[in-house]
Design a protein that fits this description.
Helix content is about 70%, strand content about 0%. The chain is mainly alpha-helical and about 550 residues long. The two termini are about 45 Å apart.
Length: about 550
């Protein structure tokens, strides 16, 4: 590495002298000497760029005080600009000198000088065999300020998509410059099928990287075009979101919602093609984690943000048919799940839940209503709108009537999608028995944590991770939040329930999701909300 640094310094001095000679004389001999060394000089520029991109602008100036002179001499040499990729590499080098946040007048002057040099290079850009494309017919001379030049270039791109491939390659190092945003947008939106009309992969990658790191801000239409035209960029955007979610605090849906909206994925997913890719990646994550509750919660938050974006967009233009987003389900089931509970009178929630259960049961067990994907597809659709399932337990616990079979089936299916009909029926019997005990206990004048722990053991499964056990735990937690007597023994019950760190995280996730949903639906229960927050705070200090 040290030897590379020494070699670069020696080469730097050699080429500085060469450029001075070429600059001072325009004889036939100097022109021949220039042409003879063009390939070597381009290789030097590549090495210089590799070194410069690892430094900040201040370090560059400190190590190479005359770098501006060297690049300027090269930029005003027509032979160098006309040779192979030297033009592009010079732009890259100049961009390394730009100080994104100038702290003094010297840095601001340097930025202005670089913009002037870029203006000169852009005015002399060649595409294939064309020279000075931007000056001929555009009315701009090299001395014109480059934002104005870019504005005119953008107009040309909007009206003529020929040779945008070359332009996209040149734009790569300029993408984070504010004045280039309109040109980047124009390139993304324009379409063509000829080789010279196809944008370069490195352009897509650079734009996507700048978007993910918030270095540029483009209209949603441009972002959608990017992700539609370059699948790796969309996949990388999803992976970037997953990385942020993994590195953040577990079980915090408000933060997940912020990350989700900030990623632009729910808004872009209004286009069905993008939605299907994003949804497929969620599906893979769900299968890889064996149905992890955190992935399910993330899918639900994504769906909520997506539906909000869809409603906004539908006010401005015709929306796509729901079938294009969820092709493996019946339109009637999709439409009823898509309803926002806030738009339904609370007294009709029970009726809506029964209707959802009937449609799902027909799709899962009777294979009617055009369901083509089997039980998993029906369940995968249902978890997108899982808030309905969480409402079932509350409806059952707050009613003294016989628990409706439809609601018992809905809970059993939500927690055990892989169960067969017989196993699901057995779960329904267990849940019904637990509900009977809980309703009887709610009328008791005294409650004990041990009594509730006994009720929790009503399930026959010994595996604490079994769907039936998970369902019963969530019923118990709902009971603690809603039953007046449950508040006094809540912490004791949770202490008995939290046998493992995995169950503790499950309980934290349940409480966080409950509070998040109450806030969304405008459910007001001050005592229950206060208890949930206290329990959540205490549990988070212990993990």
């Amino acid at each position: 590495m040290a030897q590379d640094s020494v070699d670069l310094s020696c080469d730097y001095q050699f080429w500085m002298q060469k450029l001075s000679v070429w600059d001072q004389a325009s004889t036939l001999e100097t022109q021949q000497d220039t042409c003879l060394h063009l390939a070597q000089f381009q290789e030097f520029l590549r090495k210089m760029y590799e070194a410069l991109k690892e430094m900040d602008s201040n370090t560059v100036i400190e190590r190479f005080p005359t770098i501006g002179q060297l690049l300027a001499k090269a930029c005003w040499n027509p032979f160098i600009l006309a040779y192979d990729e030297s033009q592009k590499i010079l732009i890259w080098c100049l961009c390394c000198l730009i100080n994104k946040e100038p702290q003094n007048s010297g840095q601001s002057k340097l930025n202005s000088w670089i913009q002037g040099v870029l203006s000169h290079i852009l005015s002399a850009l060649r595409f294939d065999k064309e020279v000075a494309l931007f000056t001929q017919g555009l009315g701009y001379a090299p001395i014109d300020y480059y934002p104005g030049l870019l504005k005119n270039v953008t107009k040309r791109v909007n009206g003529n998509i020929s040779r945008v491939a070359s332009l996209s390659r040149v734009c790569v190092p300029l993408i984070t410059l504010t004045d280039v945003d309109p040109l980047v947008e124009a390139l993304l939106i324009c379409h063509g099928r000829e080789p010279q009309e196809i944008l370069q992969p490195e352009f897509f990658e650079a734009v996507n990287e700048a978007i993910l790191l918030k270095k540029i801000s483009l209209p949603m239409s441009a972002v959608v075009c990017l992700w539609l035209r370059h699948l790796p960029s969309l996949e990388k955007a999803m992976l970037h979101l997953f990385e942020k979610l993994i590195s953040s605090e577990r079980n915090c849906l408000r933060r997940i919602e912020c990350f989700m909206k900030d990623s632009l994925l729910p808004q872009a997913a209004c286009h069905p093609a993008i939605f299907r890719v994003v949804d497929e990646m969620f599906r893979c994550a769900l299968l890889e984690t064996d149905g992890a509750l955190e992935i399910i919660a993330t899918i639900q938050v994504f769906t909520q943000c997506f539906v909000e974006a869809l409603e906004k967009e539908s006010k401005q233009q015709l929306r796509f048919a729901l079938k294009t987003y969820f092709p493996y389900t019946s339109p009637s089931l999709g439409m009823v799940l898509l309803q926002d509970p806030q738009d339904i009178p609370r007294g009709h929630w029970l009726q809506t839940l029964k209707h959802i259960s009937e449609l799902l049961r027909e799709a899962v067990e009777d294979q009617t209503h055009g369901s083509r994907g089997g039980p998993f597809e029906s369940w995968f659709l249902f978890i997108h709108f899982g808030g309905w399932a969480e409402m079932v337990a509350e409806q059952l616990l707050m009613s003294a009537a016989e628990p409706p079979t439809a609601l018992l089936w809905l809970l059993a299916f939500y927690y055990g999608p892989r169960d067969g009909r017989q196993q699901r029926a057995q779960t329904m019997v267990q849940v019904k028995a637990v509900l009977g005990h809980l309703l009887a206990m709610s009328r008791s004048s005294s409650l004990s944590a041990q009594d509730l722990q006994t009720v929790a053991g009503q399930g026959t499964d010994t595996d604490l991770r079994a769907p039936a056990q998970q369902l019963i735990r969530h019923l118990l937690l709902n009971f603690l939040l809603w039953a007046p007597g449950g508040h006094t023994i809540a912490w004791d019950v949770i202490t008995l329930m939290a046998h493992t760190a995995e169950i503790t995280h499950e309980i934290i996730g349940f409480l966080d999701q409950t509070l998040y949903r109450w806030n969304r639906l405008g459910i007001e229960s001050p005592r229950s909300e206060k208890l949930a927050r206290e329990l959540l705070k205490e549990l988070r200090t212990q993990v």
